[in-house]
Every structure is written in structure tokens, then in C-alpha cells.
Write a structure and sequence with these properties.
By secondary structure, this protein is of the alpha/beta class. It contains ten helices and eleven strands. Helix 7 runs parallel beside helix 8 and helix 8 runs parallel beside helix 10. It is globular. The termini are close together.
């Protein structure tokens, strides 16, 4: 496992510290780049990050490469992990936000899905769990509905009312259009086990990559820099099990820790204050949920991928 130390959020957690102390994980020191990468990145900083990423101990063997990344403000780093996939792959994306905005900077935590869709070996992205208001009037907010229309992106909110749109998007696996509304196939109302089996059977590739932003989880299971979704940890763990049983998992990356704001410029500070809930909502006891959830994930990974 790889611990990308960008913001101090991971190394202070006991499960992560134990991984590092035992040699079961390696730490990549990126603290100098953290504020410049956070929320969004210039192309220059992106290149510096990818160069440093290549310096990590190289992964060998059939088991997936696993990255713990830190705050969800770094979810736009995921395309770097996907850049040299060896075969056609489906990306399974757990998140409280669709991260599909077309009007944001190219390397932005709210727009990275569009970059991933351009990668040669990504055949489909399936986003599971969003509850956020990004799905309210998504076209006004820059949502990439064209990807839904083409079928290269599927979206299954955890719980969202219909989204108002204009134009013809058509029906998809996770939605159906009635006049100017997209009605979502909300996961909270489905048989979770049956849905997961159907999802695995529908994927166009034998290989998958799993990317997790822990803000997909309810606040009982995580405390993040963003608003929380409604999925429970038990649902997430079961999904990973079913995906690993039915497909070849090439890799997993996990973000969504809580990290104190530390940004490289005033515009990022303004954006964070505008988009993110106040940090004061979390107590020290709340933040312990992240370590508990990471412990459960680590134990599952070590069981499935010994």
C-alpha cells in the first residue's frame, strides 16, 4: 500500500501508522506539494507530482496497487494512477459528488472525471452514491450530461429527487428521462446485493479500478472536508467484496480524510470557504471515525488481496 502524505491527515491515524511501522505500506512525502495540489493544480505542479509518483517503490505481482491519498480535495490526482493501465478498465467511483464539472480548471477535484474519461483504457465510469446539490439543475452547474447520453458515464445517486434539464439526454442505466426531468435510480431504495451483482455483470471490461471519496459515507462513518452522503460503511465494504469476486481489481485509491485547510493562494481559500461546510462542525471525537473506517478498509484489503 502507498500512503501519499500531502496534508498530515493520514500519518496521525493509528491504523496508517501501524501499516507504515510494519512495512506493509510505504510513505511518499508530498507535503511540499500539498497546498499547491489541493483543490486544483497548475499543469506545472501536476507534472512535478507525476514525476514524484513515479519514484515510489514499483508495484509487482497480481495484487492491486492501493493508494491512501488524504483529503477529498485531492481526488483529481486519481487520473495519475490510471495513466498507464495495462488493459481496458471500468472505473468504479464512490463519491457524494459527481466530480464532472466542465467549467472548472482542468486539474480540479470537481472536474477530474472528465480527464479520466479521456484516458485510452477507461471504457466506462460508474459513479455510486452522490447526494449533493451538484445534481440540482446540473447543466447550469456544468455537469457533463453528454457523457451520460453517450453511456460512457453511469450515475447512481444514493438519494436524489429528479434533476431538471433541457434537451434530450435519454434513458440510461442509472436514470430515465421524462420530459425535462431525469429520474434517478436511487440506490437507497434498491436491494443492494442484487444491484451489485447486476452492476458487475453489466461492466464492459474484466478489469476494474475502484476510487473512493469517503464523503460518500454517512457522517456516522466519516468526517471529511465536504458534505456527507448517505451510504454506510457496510455498503461500501460489501461493494468492494462483490467487485473483487467478480472482476480483476487493478487498483484502489481512497481519499476523503479531514485535513485542516492549507492552500497555496487566496483564491483557493475563497473557493474552499464558498463550497465547503465550516470545519467547526467536527469535534476530535468525530475525526476518529476516519481511522475506524480506514482500519476496516485495510483489514478488508489484506483479506481480499493477501
Amino acid at each position: 500500500m502507498n500512503i501519499l502524505d500531502l496534508d498530515h491527515s493520514l500519518t496521525a491515524q493509528a491504523p496508517i501508522a501501524q501499516l507504515l511501522d510494519s512495512g506493509r505500506a510505504k510513505r511518499l512525502d508530498l507535503l511540499d506539494l500539498g497546498p499547491k495540489l489541493r483543490l486544483w493544480s497548475s499543469e506545472r505542479t501536476w507534472r512535478r507530482f507525476t514525476e514524484r509518483l513515479q519514484q515510489r517503490p514499483r508495484h509487482t505481482g497480481p495484487q492491486p496497487e492501493i493508494f491512501f491519498v488524504g483529503s477529498g480535495d485531492y481526488h483529481h490526482l486519481t487520473p495519475a494512477f490510471l495513466a498507464d493501465l495495462p488493459e481496458p478498465t471500468s472505473l468504479i467511483h464512490f463519491d457524494n459528488h459527481p466530480d464532472w464539472v466542465r467549467f472548472a480548471p482542468r486539474r480540479h477535484c470537481g472536474s477530474w472525471v472528465n480527464q479520466a474519461l479521456k484516458l485510452p483504457n477507461i471504457r466506462r465510469i460508474v459513479t455510486l452514491g452522490p447526494c449533493s446539490d451538484d445534481l440540482q439543475n446540473p447543466q447550469f452547474k456544468g455537469g457533463n450530461l453528454r457523457a451520460l447520453k453517450r453511456g460512457v458515464l453511469e450515475m447512481y445517486p444514493w438519494e436524489r429527487p429528479p434533476s431538471k434539464i433541457w434537451g434530450m439526454i435519454g434513458d440510461g442505466a442509472g436514470h430515465r428521462q421524462q420530459e425535462n426531468l431525469l429520474h434517478w435510480r436511487n440506490l437507497s431504495g434498491l436491494d443492494w446485493t442484487q444491484f451489485l451483482r447486476q452492476l458487475v455483470a453489466s461492466l464492459p471490461t474484466e478489469a476494474v479500478w475502484i476510487t473512493i471519496d469517503k464523503d460518500v459515507l454517512a457522517s456516522e462513518d466519516a468526517a471529511t472536508n465536504w458534505d456527507q452522503g448517505g451510504m454506510r460503511l457496510s455498503h461500501l465494504l460489501q461493494a468492494i467484496r462483490v467487485l473483487a469476486a467478480g472482476k480483476r481489481v487493478l487498483g484502489i485509491d481512497i481519499c476523503g480524510e479531514y485535513a485542516r485547510p492549507a492552500f497555496s493562494n487566496a483564491f483557493k481559500r475563497w473557493e474552499a470557504r464558498s463550497d465547503q461546510p465550516p470545519a467547526e462542525r467536527w469535534s476530535e471525537a468525530d475525526l476518529l471515525r476516519n481511522a475506524t473506517t480506514n482500519q476496516a478498509l485495510i483489514e478488508l484489503f489484506e483479506e481480499l488481496f493477501p
